[in-house]
Structure formats: structure tokens, C-alpha cells
Design a protein that fits this description.
Oligomer: single chain
Membrane topology: Multi-pass membrane protein
Number of helices: 24
Subcellular location: Cell membrane
Keywords: Cell membrane, Coiled coil, Membrane, Signal, Transmembrane, Transmembrane helix
Family: Belongs to the MscS (TC 1.A.23) family.
Protein name: DUF3772 domain-containing protein
Structural class: alpha+beta
Length: 812
């Protein structure tokens, strides 16, 4: 029987609605295996929007606290809060899963909406129900996506907290992480955490994939060739490069100390160049196929830098020991000591590379703080034992030499202090590890390595620059003779050029060394970064606050000590080496040295303040405080200081001048910041404030090449012949070696008195300082000649009072 089409159109939607109702009635038991009516009811009662907003607010609050956290305990609390937040997101997502499954099942039962113009239509009730379910499902899916985003953000924040906590271990030196002798320190190695295993497994899988890609048929031959080439470069290539550089130095460089310093530099250069090139070849071998994960690429790049750093340690050790050419050894090290120290540079470089690679692995993978502490403790322990062994072994060999009757090398006080500081630092590292201060131990050992590295490079480069300057400008070398002929210079000018070039190179190297010590980061600082940092320091850039932290205090103390040493060394160089080779007079040289010292101390104070974190343009409060002090009690000090600068620049008086001020006559010995020292004739010293030389009348007796005047006034009897006396006086002056011929000596008839006639004789000497001695010699000679000529000097008359009986006042 044929069913009418009209009947189909009427009854089919009704039948479909009935089936849908029956399906919905049986849905809680069949839609999902783990979904129950209670779960759906509980999920429906949750205010999802409120819960999601609460979770997002918690995440934002933790992020804000992380940005302000500074201690390990705070990081630990925040990480626990993040883990709790992750658990809350998982619970909320689990609670909403049944409701999501129910909505999805209901939507699946209704199916898609019929297309327009289709033969089969649906009732409005079904359409409304589908629309309602779709809206609910879309909203729930969006809420679940938001929950998942919060969970992902929490996971990333947890990883960042672990990284920050690991990095904070490098700066939180007072953090006690547990003794290396305790079981808690070794627990991460005995029972590893699941998260660490997961991350290490992922890194291992990425590394395996990278290695597998290099073994593909297209890359296989290169994978075999480049490592073999790298091995050849690191072994045979290094020896050959060092050998040919040494031959080139002997052949092309003049005889002298330059060959020795060049050989040491060539040893370091060959080690760094060959090892660095070999490391880059290995890196290129793994990176050739492309599509290397970012973590693997970063890890390999850091390994290359670490290999270069380790190669520099080994190269510096071999260069300073120079066991292959003991006669060319730069530092004063006895041969037995050098031979005993021969394996230690390679050992130290290998340990540095191994433990540096371990630390880089922890950083790249993002292992837990406990694993990071274990790695830091093991690296500090191994390196401290190596450094301590070097110090103890060298002392042992020196004692054996003394017992055997051999003379060890003569060590300076500075080298002895360096040796003692190294040994004490190694002991301090071991003690810190024993009592649980792992971060302090790591900081001390890495700072010791970095300081030793910088000072060793500084010593080598300064020696090379000094020898190079002497070789270039020495009159005994071809370059020196060519410069002398082309510029028409004498040996004195060449010596000045040598000193100037040497000190300029030393100042630049010391500046770079100071920047490296103060701002260098272990294993990452490059020469370009050091140059950029030195420019920033001179320009005051980067000092944006007045906050003083312990690290800045250490930097300021180091800056002050290094600055004082450099300033004093520069002053000694100016006084004893450079200025004596110039044509400047002694007074000008002393003034220049004093002015240089004063300016140097001002710059040193500014640099120390900068190292403290105080920006120069932020010192208005200091100026204000000084202005108040100047108004009440410091005005005299400031006035004398400014007067001292005026004396050094205008130079109305200078060191060595004979001056007379307020009845004080003597030689200026020193012009200080506040006062000037005047030495009197009896060798005593008068301290005169500098302001008096500006505000009072000062007689500079020796200024302008003044000549001394030796004038004697003698009284002769009235019956003496003045012409004969005049001739005797002129002859006495003319025969004296100190009296100048121009202006010629002269005799003046000064005075005629009842007691006699006074004749004054005047002569000039080259310096006022010679007047006293010349007058004494002339008096001896004149009296001698007068007695020979039987010419007496007039004697003064005396008045005698007679007895009262003869009351007459008669001359005697």
C-alpha cells in the first residue's frame, strides 16, 4: 500500500521527536562510560564564569609577586601557589567534562540542520532545541579553552619561577642549600624527579633526532669527515701552528724580549684558534641538515663558547709554564716547579668544560633547583680541589728544592699575596660546601677563575705591549733607526716615544681589565661587549638609580682599590720615567704631577660613586649638603682648594721657587690641595694656606730667571785713598768665579760720615741662592787683600766718662 506524501510530511517529524525523547531518557547510561547523572548535575551547578575569573585573578596576582620576588623562599612559596593553581584548573576542567560530553551527545543526536529546500523538514521545537544546545556547547567550549589557557600560563610561569630560582642561586650567597656531606644533597641523584626525567628525555630525543639527521645518506660522509678534521686541528694542528708561529717570531722579530712575549702570545693564540675552530666544526656537523631545535642550537652555541674559554685557560697555563722553552719563560718560575705544574692547565680546562657543559645542560633543559644545586656543588668541589692542589703542589716542590740545596725562584710580595689568596679562596670554597653554602662556593670559585683569567691575560698583553714599544722605538732596531732618520730625532725623543706608547697601551689594557673584572660575566663576555661597557662607564650610561646593593659595594671597593693602584703607578711613571726625559724644568714637572694626581682622585671618586649605582646627574643632594657645609665651615677648605688649582694652572709660584710671603722666606717644596710647604734655611717647613698666595703680596725671588745681587758696604778711615780701595774691591769681585762679567761689578761712594767713608761694592751672581755664599767668600778675600795693602777698616768711636774731679767728656 502506498503511503500518501502528505501523511509522511505530517507524521515523520512526530516520530522523530518521539525517538529523540526516548534517546534522551537513556542518554546518561550510554553517552559516556564515566558520566553519571550526579556528575552532570554537579557540573550544571558550577558558576563557571566566576570560577574562571577567580583562577585568572590568582594567576595575575602570582605573576605580579614573581616580578617583585628576590629570595629563594619566596620563589618556593610562589611555585607552590602555581602548582595549586594548576591543580584547581585540572579539577575544574574535570568537573565540566561530563556536561561537555552530554551536550556533545545531544547535539550529535539532533544531527545537522536540514538544508534549505530539502524534502524532509523538522519541527520548530527541534530547531529551538538544537540552537539552545549549540549556544550552551559553544559557551562551554570557550570556557574550557580559557581554563586550558590559564593552565598553560600557570605551567609556563612555574617553569619561569624554576629558572629564576636557579639563577637566583648564583646571587643569593647567604642561602644555605644543605651540606655536600648530607644525604639531602645527593638525593636528586638517587631518586630523580619525574619532571626532570621527562625534560631530560625530551632533550635526549631532540639530540638523538639531530644526530640521526646527520647520519642520513646525504650528510653521512660529512658527518665522518668534519669530526676527524676537528680532532686533527685540536691535536696536530695546534702543535704545528704553535711551531710555525714561533719560527716566524724568531725569523722576523728583532732579538730581545719581544720574541719571548710573542712566543707566549702565540701559544695562547694557537690553542684558542684551533680548539675554537674544532668546536665550530662539530657545531656545523650537527647543524648542517637544518631544522635543529632551538634548545639544541642554543646548547651547542654555548658549548662552543665554553670550549674557547677552556682552551684559553689551557693556553695561558702552557704559555706561562713554557716547559718546551724554559729560557723563554715570562714569569719567574723555577724549572722543577714548572714541570710539576705541567698537567694542571689541561686538568683545569677539562674540568671547566665538563662542569660548564653540565651547568649549561641544566639551564637548557630547565631541571629542578635541587639538581642545579647538585651540579653547582660538584663543579665547585672539583675546581676548588684542583686550585688547592696547584697551590699546595707548588709549595711542596719549592720546599723540596730548598731541602736539596737548590734555590727556588725569587717571588715578589705581590706574587706571594696572590698565591696566598688563591689557597685561602680554595679553602673557603671547601668550607662553604661543607656547611651548605653552595651558592657562595660557586660564586667564589668562578670569581677566582675569572679574576685569574683576566689578570693572566692582562699580564701577558702588558708585557707584549711594553716589549713591542721598546722594539719599535729602540735606536738599536731597524724600525727605531728608520724613525730616527726620517723624523730627525735623537735618542732622548725615542725614549720618550717608547715610554708614551707603552703607558698608553698599559692604560688601555688596565681599563679593559677593570671593566672585565667589574662587569664581565663568566664565559660570556666578548671584547666588543667590554669595549661597549667601557664607553658606557665613561659616559655614565646605565646608572639610573641611587640604590646600593651588595654587588655594587663589591664593585665599588674593587674600583677604588684598582683606581688607587693605577693612579699611584701612573704618578710614579710620570715622576720617574717620562717627565725626567723631557726638557721641562723641575718645578713644572712637579706641578704637572700634582695636577694630574688631583684630577685623577676626582675622577676616581666619581667612578666609585658610579660603581655604587649612583648616577652622576643624581648628585644634587650631595651638592646641596655641601653648599650648607660650605656656608658654615667648609668655605676655607674650598677656598684653599680652588687657590691650589689656580696656583697649579697660572703658576705664579711653582715648586723650587724662592719666595717671601709675610716675612717667611724659603723654597717651595710641594703644592698640595689645601696648603703649600715652604722649606726655610734651617730645613724646617712652614705650611702656608694656598689662599694666601692669591690674596697677599708674594715676592718670588727666583721668578723670571732673576739674578742674585751680592752687595757689601764697608767703612774706611777718612785718610785712606778711595781709588786704591776701589781697585782692590773690583779686583776681588772680578776674580771670584761666581760673579758675572755682565753686568760688571761696580763700586759706589755711598756715604761720608765723621767716622769714615762708606764704599758699597756690587756684583751679580747667576741665582739669588748663591748670594749668601758669594758674599762670605768675598769678605774673606777682601779683608785679606786690604791687610796686604795695609788699609784698615774704620773702627767705631766710643765715648768714655772720666772721674768726677775731671768732669770732661773726652773721646777715646
Amino acid at each position: 500500500m502506498r503511503v500518501p506524501q502528505r501523511a509522511v510530511q505530517v507524521w515523520l517529524p512526530v516520530l522523530f521527536a518521539a525517538l529523540f525523547a526516548l534517546f534522551c531518557a537513556s542518554l546518561p547510561a550510554t553517552a559516556a562510560d564515566n558520566t553519571t547523572p550526579a556528575d552532570v548535575t554537579a557540573a550544571a551547578k558550577i558558576n563557571v564564569d566566576s570560577e574562571v575569573a577567580k583562577l585568572q585573578k590568582q594567576l595575575d596576582g602570582i605573576k605580579q609577586q614573581v616580578s617583585n620576588a628576590a629570595s629563594d623562599s619566596k620563589y618556593g612559596e610562589l611555585n607552590d601557589a602555581v602548582q595549586q593553581l594548576i591543580g584547581n584548573t585540572n579539577d575544574l576542567a574535570t568537573a565540566l567534562a561530563p556536561l561537555q560530553a552530554q551536550l556533545q551527545a545531544q547535539v550529535d543526536v539532533l544531527g545537522p540542520a536540514p538544508e534549505q529546500g530539502a524534502a524532509i523538514t523538522e519541527t520548530s521545537e527541534v530547531t529551538r532545541k538544537r540552537a539552545s544546545l549549540s549556544v550552551q556547547k559553544t559557551k562551554l567550549d570557550a570556557q574550557l579553552e580559557q581554563i586550558q589557557a590559564i593552565r598553560t600560563g600557570a605551567l609556563n610561569l612555574s617553569a619561569q619561577i624554576v629558572t629564576l630560582r636557579r639563577n637566583a642561586l648564583k646571587t643569593q650567597l647567604a642561602l644555605n642549600s644543605g651540606s655536600i656531606l648530607g644525604a639531602s644533597f645527593w638525593s636528586p641523584l638517587l631518586a630523580s624527579q619525574a619532571e626532570d626525567e621527562k625534560r631530560l628525555t625530551q632533550f635526549q630525543a631532540q639530540l638523538s633526532d639531530t644526530l640521526s639527521a646527520t647520519w642520513e645518506p646525504d650528510w653521512r660522509y660529512g658527518t665522518l669527515f668534519y669530526p676527524l678534521l676537528a680532532l686533527a686541528l685540536a691535536t696536530v694542528g695546534q702543535r704545528l701552528l704553535e711551531k710555525y708561529l714561533a719560527r716566524a717570531g724568531i725569523r722576523w722579530l728583532p732579538e730581545g724580549r719581544l720574541r719571548r712575549s710573542f712566543l707566549a702570545s702565540a701559544t695562547v693564540l694557537s690553542s684558542v684558534a684551533t680548539i675554537g675552530l674544532a668546536a665550530n666544526l662539530l657545531d656545523y656537523t650537527l647543524a648542517r641538515p637544518g631544522d635543529v631545535p632551538a634548545t639544541i642550537e642554543s646548547f651547542l652555541d654555548n658549548l662552543v663558547r665554553l670550549a674557547v674559554f677552556s682552551a684559553m685557560i689551557a693556553g695561558l697555563g702552557r704559555a706561562f709554564l713554557s716547559n718546551h722553552r724554559p729560557s723563554w719563560r715570562l714569569p719567574a718560575i723555577a724549572n722543577p716547579v714548572a714541570k710539576a705544574m705541567d698537567p694542571f692547565p689541561i686538568i683545569a680546562a677539562s674540568l671547566m668544560f665538563v662542569f660548564g657543559m653540565l651547568e649549561q645542560l641544566n639551564t637548557t633543559v630547565g631541571t629542578s633547583v635541587a639538581v642545579t644545586i647538585v651540579g653547582n656543588g660538584l663543579s665547585a668541589l672539583a675546581l676548588a680541589l684542583t686550585v688547592g692542589a696547584i697551590a699546595l703542589r707548588s709549595n711542596q716542590v719549592r720546599r723540596q728544592m730548598v731541602e736539596a740545596g737548590e734555590q727556588p725562584e725569587a717571588r715578589s710580595t705581590l706574587s706571594g699575596l696572590v698565591h696566598l689568596a688563591t689557597l685561602l679562596t680554595a679553602i673557603a670554597v671547601l668550607i662553604s660546601l661543607a656547611i651548605g653554602y653552595i651558592s657562595l662556593a660557586r660564586f667564589l670559585i668562578y670569581e677566582l677563575i675569572w679574576v685569574g683569567m683576566v689578570l693572566s691575560c692582562l699580564y701577558l698583553l702588558i708585557t707584549l705591549v711594553t716589549d713591542l714599544s721598546e722594539s719599535i722605538f729602540s735606536p738599536n732596531t731597524a724600525s727605531g733607526r728608520r724613525i730616527k732618520r726620517s723624523l730627525n730625532l735623537d735618542d732622548r725623543h725615542l725614549a720618550q716615544a717608547t715610554s708614551l706608547a707603552s703607558v698608553c697601551g698599559k692604560v688601555f689594557l688596565i681599563l679593559m681589565g677593570a671593566v672585565a673584572l667589574l662587569n664581565g660575566t663568566f664565559g660570556t663576555t666578548t671584547p666588543i661587549e667590554l669595549l661597549q661597557k667601557s664607553v658606557e662607564i665613561w659616559g655614565g650610561k646605565g646608572l639610573e638609580s641611587l640604590s646600593i646593593v651588595p654587588a655594587n659595594l663589591v664593585n665599588a671597593a674593587a674600583c677604588l682599590v684598582i683606581g688607587i693602584y693605577v693612579l699611584r703607578s701612573s704618578r710614579r711613571w710620570l715622576e720617574d720615567d717620562f717627565l725626567p726625559k723631557t726638557t721641562l724644568e723641575k718645578g713644572i714637572r712637579a706641578s704637572l704631577v700634582t695636577l694630574f694626581t688631583n684630577i685623577g682622585y676626582i675622577l676616581l671618586i666619581l667612578l666609585t660613586l658610579a660603581a655604587l649605582g649612583i648616577q652622576w646627574n643624581k648628585l644634587a643632594w650631595i651638592v646641596s649638603a655641601l653648599s650648607v657645609g660650605i656656608g658654615f665651615g667648609l668655605q676655607e677648605i674650598v677656598k684653599n682648594f680652588i687657590s691650589g688649582l689656580i696656583l697649579l694652572t697660572e703658576r705664579p709660584v711653582k715648586v723650587g721657587d724662592l719666595v717671601n710671603i709675610s716675612g717667611v722666606e724659603g723654597d717651595i717644596r710641594r703644592i698640595n690641595v689645601r696648603a703649600t710647604e715652604i722649606q726655610l734655611g734651617d730645613r724646617s717647613t712652614v705650611i702656608v694656606p694656598n689662599s694666601q698666595f692669591i690674596s697677599q703680596n708674594v715676592r718670588n725671588i727666583t721668578m723670571g730667571n732673576a739674578m742674585g745681587v751680592a752687595t757689601l758696604a764697608l767703612t774706611f778711615p777718612l785718610d785712606a785713598d778711595p781709588e786704591i780701595i776701589r781697585e782692590i774691591l773690583l779686583n776681588a769681585y772680578g776674580d771670584h768665579e761666581s760673579i758675572l762679567e755682565t753686568p760688571a761689578p761696580s763700586v759706589t761712594f755711598s756715604q761720608l760720615t765723621p767716622t769714615g767713608m762708606v764704599l758699597s761694592v756690587t756684583g751679580y751672581v747667576p741665582s739669588p741662592r748663591m748670594v749668601s755664599g758669594a758674599k762670605s767668600d768675598l769678605l774673606f778675600e777682601i779683608i785679606k787683600r786690604l791687610r796686604t795693602a795695609s788699609i784698615p777698616l774704620a773702627s767705631p768711636q766710643k765715648m768714655v766718662l772720666e772721674n768726677a774731679s775731671d768732669a770732661t767728656l773726652l773721646p777715646e
